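Same chain as my last thread, 284 residues:
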Amino acid sequence: MANSKIVFKYDNEVKVLDNIRDVENLSTLRMNYNSIIYCRGGRILVEIGGNNQINVKPGQLFLIPRGKLVQPMMVSTDVEASALLFSDRALKSILGNQINIWNKAMYMKEIYVLESANWLEAFGEYTRCIFQRDPMPILYDEITSSFLRMLMLLLCEELMKHEDMMHSDDISTMHDKEIFNQFLQLLANQKQKRQRVSFYANQLNITSKYLSTVCKRVSGKSPIRWIIESVMQDGYSLLTETDLSVKEISNILGFPNSSFFGQYFREQAGITPIEYRLEHKKMI
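reply #2:
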């Protein structure tokens, strides 16, 4: 990617893209970063997570958690959209305990689109003033970290106002949420995600039963369900964004053979890996 396409980069942990149309390897960036995309014009129709269609219109924010498969279905020729990208480490550092709000919205409630807030345009102006200023401010690091934290807290405030976030019974403790967030992080960073619950529990120094209790209390889903969904995300991505054979993909994902992977995939997606690939290659 040419450096001119990235208008700001902070220790490779945070990136600001002026226009996503100019970025050649957007797919790679999207899989490695949490993305906040602001659609200024045109229209974007995507499939997210392998089965959920999202229509993004001008003035809306499109939020994508790291590793979530996003398959473009239609991008209008007049689309203009900028993006703010955070690594998991940067997002955790910036939000602190408020990372629970992001995780709940992204992974549990699956809130991917927000209407534009009245503060957004003002932040756009500040972004250009701070990140495209020459020379850079003397207190650059402090200004940058404070600015990004304020931006993300305002975004979390908008997420908390969302109807899906307001109407839910939360019986989990802060300790539960911390363990759950660590589990999600482990799952995201694991190359072969198809592991036993005990594998993740051992890394968290807790029992499998306790991890199951925490996951169900925080998210309403078992750790097995989270593992399956993460494996499928990797499968969807490899089938649509690479030319690897089903056997090669099966090996990468840690299945004993391609037949077992095919059966597993069909049980979850309702179609075979080959059928999924052909269907989504046509969409592209």
